[in-house]
Every structure is written in C-alpha cells, then in structure tokens.
Amino acid sequence: MRIRPGLWCSAAFVAVLVAMAAFPALFTAADPDAADLQATFAPPGGAHWLGTDENGRDLYARIVHGARPSLLIGIGAVALALLGGVAVGVASARLGRLADQVISRSLEIVLSVPWLLLVFLVVAALGPGSGPAVIGLAITSLPGFARVARAETIRLRAAPFVEAARGFGWSGAQVVLRHVLPNTLGPVLALATVSLGAMIVASSSLSFVGLGPQPPTAEWGAMLASSRQTLSVAWWPAVFPGVAITLAVLAVTALGRELHGRVEGRSA
Amino acid sequence: MSEPLLDVRDLTVDFPRRGVRAVRGVSFTAERGRITAIVGESGSGKSVTARSLVGLPGDGAEVRAAALDFDGIDLTGRPPWRALRGRRIGFVLQDALGSLDPLRRVGAEVAEPLREHRVVPSRQIREETVRLLTEAGIPGAETRARQYPHELSGGLRQRALIASALAARPDLLIADEPTTALDATVQRQVLRLLRERASEGVAILLITHDLGVVAEIADHVHVMRDGVFVEDGPAHQILECPRHAYTRALVGAGAPLARSRPGGHARTVLRADGLAKRFTLPGGRAVPAVDGVSLTLKAGETLGIVGESGSGKTTVGRMLAGLTRPDAGTVEIDGRRWDALGRRELREFRRRVQLIYQHPLSSFDPRYSVRALLEEPLRATGRPVTDKALTALLDQVGLPADVLARRARELSGGQAQRLAIARALAPDPDVIVCDEPVSALDASIQAQILELLAGIQDRRGVAYVFVSHDLGVIRRLSDRVAVMREGRVVEEGGIEQVFRSPAHPYTQELLAAIPRERSKK
Amino acid sequence: MAGILKTVPAGAEAPAGTGRIARLAAVRLAGSLAVLWGAVTVTFLVVRAAPGGTADVLLARSTVSPEIRAQLIAEYRLDDPLPTQYLTYLGRLARGDLGDSYALRRPVADVIGAQLPDTLVLIAATLALTVAGAILLAVAGARRRPWMRAVFGSAESLMAALPPFWLGLILLSVFSFTLHWFPAIGDSSPRGLFLPALALAAGPVAVVAQVLREGMLRALEEPFVLTARTRGISEAAVRFRHVLRHGLTPAVPLLGWITGSLIGGAVIVEIVFSRQGVGRLVLSAVQNKDLPLVTAVVLLAAVVFVVVNILVDVLNWLIDPRTREAT
Predict the structure, then answer these.
(1) Which CATH superfamily is domain A5-19+51-263 in?
(2) Gap between the Cα atoms of B378 and B429, Å rounded
(3) ipTM rounded to 2 decimals
(4) Percentages (nearest 5) of helix, strand, coil residues in chain B
(5) How far is B237 from chain C (nearest CA, A)?
(6) DSSP-derived 3-state class of residue A107
(7) d(Cα B350, Cα B347) in Å, to the nearest integer?
(8) How far is CA C169 from each of CA B154, B306, C182, C196, rounded to the nearest angstrom?
(9) pLDDT-derived band of residue C10, with 50, 70 and 90 as boundaries?
(10) Contact C124, C193 (CB under 8 A)
(11) For the whole model, what pTM was predicted?
C-alpha cells in the first residue's frame, strides 16, 4: 500500500485536532476566557504566540479550546445523518416501489432548500445553540447518506459475489452479515469523513452569524465574527482561527478522499 | 507483384517511461487490393504496431524503423499526419460503442473526415454521408444518420465506423479488431464488407486475435507474440500447416479435446422441464426471455448451451443453478424439485450446483484474500478448513500454494478463472454451470482452461452445463449441445451429430459463421 | 444477458425537438410542484410544531396586554385546529399572499421584494465568475503531466476548503483596508460587487473545475477520441468538438446544485460585507423568530432550486442524447 506524505500530514493533523478537542490542557496552560485589558491586540510573538484579541485573551489558547465545539458539532451531525441516512436508504431499497418513491421525493424536498436556510428554519423553531445546530446540519446531510446506502444495497443485492455466497448454502442473514454490510460500510464511512469537513465549515459559519454555541465559548467561527469589527485595527484575530478551520477541513477531506479512493478501487 | 503501398521494415516501438518494448523489429507490407493480417493475443503489440502507422502509438512512445514507407512518404520523419489520417489512411477501431462519439449523431461522425479533407463540396456532404452508410450495408441510412450511436445495434455501429474510415476514400484501411464484440452472423457480414472494399482496390491491414477471422478473408498472415512475428505466410498455409509451436496452439484451439468418454448409462442428475421466464422492461412491458425449455444432464457429462446474446441461455443456466426462480416449469436434482424444497433443504441442494462466471473477479468479495475466498465455501458446507484442504483445491486447478496470501485482483485473467473453478469445486458439487467461462480470455489461455475443466471432469465425474456464444468452444468440451434462439431450444443432440448434419436452419447458419468450419470445405 | 442494448428501429423517428423539450419541461414541472408542496407542508409543520406555540414565540420578547395578544391570535387564526390553519395557509399561498412579517409588521412579499434585487445581482455575478473561472482552470489544468495535475489539484482542494466568510474577511482586510483598491463595506456599486462575488465563487470554481476537468480527461482516454484523431482533425477540434461536451455533462447538474446553494451562501457573504440583501434580512428574521419571513425565504429558495433544476434537465437533454430515452 502506497501512502503519500501529504496523507501522513493530514492524518497527523487530524490526530492533533482530536487530542486538542479531548485534552486542551495538554496544549496550553492559558485560560481561553481570561481577559487582560492591559494587553488588548498584542501582536503575535512573545508571551502570546498568536497575539491577543480585543479583550486581551490569548488567541492560541482560544483556538485550542475552540477545537472541541467545532469538532463535536461536526461529528454529532455526521453521526446522526449517517444513522438516519443508512436506515432511510436501506428502507428505500428494500420496502418496495411505493416506499422508494415516497422516500425519494421526501429527500428531494430536503435537498430543495439550501442547507443554511434549512438550519435557519430549525434554529428559528428551536432557538440558537449547539443542539439545534447539530439537528439542522444532520437533516441537511441525511439525503447524501440515504442515497449511498440505497445504491449500495441495490448494487450488492445483485452482485455476482453475493449470489455466489448464496450458492454455497449460506442463509440470507449470513450473506448480509458476511458480504452486504461490510461492503456497504466502506462507501458510507468514506462519505462520512468527507462530510465531516463540510460540517466543520458549516458549523463555524453558524457560529459566525451567531447561531451556534453562545459566547463567551471559544469557537473558531465566533472568534472570526468578533474580529470583523476590529479588522482595521488588527489582522491576526481575523487570520489564525480561519487558518485553523481551513487546515482542519483540508486534512479531514484528504483522509476522506483517500478512503473513498480505496473503496472505489476495491469495488471497480 | 506490384510495388507495395506500405512497406514496414524492422519497426520498433519503445515506451521508455514504462520500461516496455512493445514492438521489437517487425517487417511487413500491404498492397492494394489485398488483405494483410496481423494475429496475436492481447499484449502481443499488434495494436501498437497499427497505431504507429498513423502516428498515434500512445503517450511517451518512441517509434523507430529501418523503413516506414507509405506510397513514397517516409513516416519516420515528420510526415503531414493530419493530411494522411483519414484522407490516405483510414482507421477502424474495435469496440464500436466507444469508438463513435456518443454525444454526436452518426451522420456527423461519418461526415467528419469529409468536412476535414474537403472531399466533396459542403452542400453535398449530407448526400454523400447517406451514400457511404448505404454502401456499408446500413438499411434506412437516411434515418440512421440522424440517430445517435446508442440507438444502433453493434453491427450497425461497426458498419458506420467503417463507413467513416472509408469516407475520404483512403488507399489503406487499418482495421483493429473490427468484429470482436459482434455475434457470429453479424461478424460474417462485416468481414464480407471488408472483402468487398479490398476487391475495389483498397489495401487492408487487419489486426485481430481471432484466427477464424483471418481464415475468413486474409490473403497473407503474420502471427505476432511478445512484440515479434513468430511466423508468416499465406493464410491457407498458416491454417493448414502451421510451423511454429505457438501458431499450432492457436490453430489447434478449435478441435475437440481428445478424451475417452464413458458410454451412456449414467444416472440423470439434473432435469429441467418446461422452464419459462419473463422479464419486465422499465416501460412495464413483459418480454419472454425463456420459453418452454426442457433439458436433462447425466452425471459426468457436459451439456453445451449455445446461442447469441439475448437468446436466453444465461437465464437458463441461472435457473438450473437455483438462482433465478422460473415463472413456469420445474428443475429437479436427483429427482427432487427445487421449488418443492424448504429453505434449509434448498440451501443444501444449492451447494450441489455451482456457478462459474464470465468475469470471475465480480464473483469474489473485493475485501477477501484468495485464502478467505477458498475458506468460505468450505466453512459454509461444514467441511474442515485446513491448509491441506486449501492447497489440495489449488492443486486441482494448477495454482501454486503461495497465491493464498494474495488478493484475487492481483491474479491474471486465466489465474482468476482457475481460482473460480477451485472455489466452485470446494463444496463438492455434482454439477457446475459455466457461463461463458473463457470468453474474456485469449485463445491460448482458453485452451488451458478448457483442458483443465476436461481433466477435472475425468477425475471427479462432475457434470457441466457449458453456456457459450461460441460453437467452437462448446465443441471442444461438450458431449451434447442445445442450440437456443429467442428463448427456445431449436435443436439438441450429440455434439458431432449436430456439427456433421445440423437439422435446424439456424444451427446451419451458426456453423457457417465459424470461419474454420467453412475453410475446410 | 450481456448487454441487451435497445435498438431503435429505423422508421421510428423522434418527434420534433422543441416539442419534446416542452414535454420534458412540463413533466419536470409537475414533479417539482409536488416537491414544492412538500416543502410548504414541512415548513408549516416545523413552524407550528415549534415548542411553546406560535403565539408565545410571536410575543415572547414583547410585553403586550392580553387584549393585543387576543387580537393577534385572532388575526393569525392561531386558535383554529391545525388542519384548518394548514388549509388557510395553502389558500393564502396560492393567492400569492405570504403573510405579514411579525417583526416589521409589513407584508412579507414587500419586505423581500425590496431586498431581492441586491441578492440576485450578487448571485448572478458569482455564477458568471464560477463558470468563467472553472472553464479557465479546467482547460488550463487538463494536461497529462502528473505534476501539473497535482499542482492544480492542490490549489483547488485549498480553494474548496476555505470557508467563504473567512475568505471574505481576508479579501476585505487585504484589498479594502490595506490596499484600498475596493470600497470597504456596505457598497452596492459594481466595484463593490467584485470582492463578495469572489469570496462566494472560490469554492464553486474549484469544485466545478475539478469535475469538468475529470470529465475531459476521462473523455480524452475514450476510443472515440482516437477515432477522431485518425480522421486527421486538429487537436483544437478534438477538444472543442468532442471532449468539452463530455466534461459538461457532469458539470451542468453540479452547477445547478451550486446555484441553489448560493442563496444560502449569499446570507453569510452579505453579512461579512454588510451588504443589503435577503441574507441579512433572513438572519435578522431568525434572530427575531419572525417565522413568516423565514418561511417565505425558504420557499423562495425552493422555487429557485426547482426552476434551476428544470433548466439543468433541459440543458442535459440538449447535451446528451442518451438521457432522452427516459422521457
């Protein structure tokens, strides 16, 4: 198996991100919420690696602590969408033509509304915060999982190797356990990883417009939102959180694509 | 003999970046009015040779030759390729579906060389296109020109492709596998079309893997292997007294395998009675795929089922294996009916009829190693899963034990089919249904697989149902043959009897389409 | 059986092209109405199912007397049973009445109508930038050299990963605050349009370019390209007459999907650049729980999605004859 250096970097970066989200204290001793009005807008360097914001809070500490809400919302939304999507997709493939039609149409309805507006609708109904954000984002990415699960179920049911397994005398359940489920899992997990990247951008967009986790929680999108007011004074509060988001998305997406490539190569 | 139109001497084609020398010093000529053939299996370098003649050998290729002369033009220098291609040298590729641009009308594709080389004034292009299509034997050419490639049958597409290559009236026509994907009867019509063009004075260079095609129409034959010509001569000489061992293997690939077959009081293992199956099209219309087929199979014998695509032969094979439920009729194994069995019994009985597919890789779970693939049927049928059992299976099909650790997709086509056979043998079946098991393989590999199947039958007494579109392949292995057409069996009988005195006109047509059979007469 | 391909008999000529396109559009329109009706129903249910009831949501922040409360409930018929409310709602929509904004106390249609042109201009500019940029990038990068492909691939991955709101911030910071090339904030002149459109288009450009180029590279490997070359045509003719259309077939549906999602993207970019538009309107509506306004924008987006998808189907019908069988 060939692994490119870019892929190693991505994997390492994702590992660091997860560690930051789980144990932020390992990376910084500073309190992300400690304001220091003596040191507002300290430029990067010295005591503050990445500088400080308008309240004199350490940007590096805030970025480290911001990993958790960003990742949690993304992972929560993807997990919810995956479970719901696979259930809906498999049902669509197996319950007959009428169910398939009804489900496909319903998914089309979800797809017909831009994701941000759909989340807005949920937030308008449930109020701002992490929970509604997770639910809203999960609904927007559910159709993708449902489509993959449906297509895989249909493809595998007719695949010669599944048929060959039936020919050895396995029962229906054994064939599903041995061949159908494991082969569905690959494409679904690949999609989940790629979606996670999109979800990280989406959740930071929500915080940016003030509909995600509420202040003073350190969150990358929210940090960028507050930096907008002071853009003409200091550039660093507007740069580093964005770099964090971009790198996280790049790394996660690269892993997802690799996974996707392997799955495709295997079933081709 | 007149001056040759094309004179190739000591042609070499390298792919330095891949470290491959695809063509290693071949020499041949092509003359007006004659058909020169290059025969070889996949990877022999025959297609690269052909493409070098129009300056399109592929990315990163280096072409060298002592002489590469086309009608006085030196092709090794920097000849005006665009003026030659299409105008002086026409090129027909195999795979007629992919070789016409699917997003453009057939007429536009055929007319492209006309426009490019300004062969006729532009207001006559339409008329000329229709004339070319008609000349290539396409009925209703006016309408066909307005259709898209996917709306035409394979045979019509191939004719359109030939019409396009001949549109600017080139002196040389290069045809690379022009009949590969076609049914036997259509194949014959296309070959006749090429022969007609040759008799009008076009020089034809025919590239093929199929000696049968060569026997049909070629004047002179070169046999190519691993980038060199191993033998050449007039077509009849190559076919009747081949000198090189490789040529003999290719020529011999059609004759029945020499084996002593037991006489006929074996028990009947499989009996099908009045099988019928309909399929529903997307529009809701039901078409009968199989319509009243009855067959019997005795222990240890081989029943061939032959038919062209759409004849229903594969569906019959699947119903015999218990994978497709018939709409009407019954399948009995040892006198017991499939459909009367309970779930548990059905699973036990299913094990006794195994299936081998045309593309073995599709029948292997992509996640499995060779070891896992072989273990699965042993485990499923409650047999001991030991290294000894696995190597014994591999041994039967002539695969070394070290493939166990590998993945199936790393194997060659022939090896993968051997593995499929080993896996089918693992549950110790009474019957193996082979669905086009050698159609995707080169002739020399085909011969090896067929010999392997024959040897296994002699040793283990397993019965085969051998489904194929190729009567030549069927003949090599089968004791009896059933000829299918449009869902029905039109003729059935002992293989030699059917070959010697075919009763049904359709069988006669099929036999006539086997080039070797005709060349004997 | 291996490849039973449908063969159309020579006599069966298709009806005239324009007639078939009209039929295709009609069929799609009927399907789309079903989708729209579904979207209306879902938004209705979400809004009415909101915890606390609409009346409470509506009045949550305001201190009103019970009389006004009763008056509002009567006005919005909030005490009717749900099915009646639903039918009333459908009836109003059918007459083009989107209701009144709770917060602004004005008809929703007027409020949106005032902001719509700005947003549409932004979306149109973004689309133009996307198409031009994607074709440029795809054609420039459609080379066979592996390192060239790697360079273009990495650049596009980066562009696709950039959050549009952050890109907007950076563009503002560099080109407006530092270099003073473009007006800073809240400007609706054409010059003020460029940076927002750029921030919004970067991701779509990358994605569309990738799909377009992959389609072209795949087509270049197809045998029909070799056939075309053996006819003696030029390399430019190979690319424009044959290959480009094959790249377009997967890119057009993608572009349609992107157009739909741009309405969402516009919200964020309008906030970053403090531009007038539906985006800022809907955000403040969400913050105020102004449900009629939010619902109306959601429905508007669904309508745009539906219309764009019909266009995409018609375009694909024109480009790829193989899709015509289904109609």
Answers:
(1) MetI-like (1.10.3720.10)
(2) 12
(3) 0.82
(4) 40, 25, 35
(5) 33
(6) helix
(7) 5
(8) 58, 71, 13, 10
(9) very low
(10) no
(11) 0.76
